[in-house]
Amino acid sequence: MTFSKQKNPWRKIALMSAILGLPGAAMADWGLNLTKGVTPYSNTVYDLHMLILGVCVVVGIVVFGLIFYSVIAFRKSAGAKAAQWHESTKVEILWTLVPFLILIGMAVPATHALIMMENVSNADMTIKVTGYQWKWHYQYLDDGINFFSTLESGSNMARQLKSGVDPKTVPNYLLEVDNHLVVPVGKKIRFLTTAGDVIHAWWVPALGWKRDAIPGYINESWAEIQTPGTYRGQCAELCGKDHGFMPIVVDALSAEDYAAWVTKMKAATQHADAGAAVPAAAVAQQ
Asked: What domains are there in the chain, each with its CATH number?
């Protein structure tokens, strides 16, 4: 069969290009694609991801399109004869220069994202996050608030062997905690991440990053949540037998609601401190 009797190979190549080059908006809603977060950095990461993905798709279409076209149009059965040549300086310069420029074009926004991620200056508040087996400890360094956050009792019961509880009946199974991390929207929050025993990792996808929690070492991160809501995450570093039972829940509140929560927590802390001081004073008088 000769080449002239076949269908135009460019039609197949165009169809493949249309399939691979799905619109960015459609890919954003696809479950396999990276999702947008609720912080400036998470949006920067998403835009960078889509840019690099687009570059890779275009390069893939061009390279494989040329390969498929060459295989079809210049096959022996169509009467093609191999060209006799050894090198081309222009072609070699071209295929070296083009990838170099592409890499530089991708490196510039990637470097901007890395610098942005590490810039924890001018933070409005600081929260220290300490990982333990199998819980998180949160300290609001500016307000004197601290508490532990562990797996919620319903999930903890349902996960037990022969508990008789259907996990499907438990809301947010394995993704709910007894004490949520509460933060205000529109404020730059500096996170100090460490651990008290083994290596953990504090990860909330909506924030756009994860940070290792390493004993004896403090990692810095920041987030400025722009949309009120509840955002869930998990420990992302294998830390032992109950690694899968260290969820994270962040509640982002308006400034007014956050201020009310801080007032309530401070009052509860003072009440607890006063209750603990009474027995101590009684013992001292004996």
From this structure: 3-79+87-118 (no CATH), 125-271 (2.60.40.420)
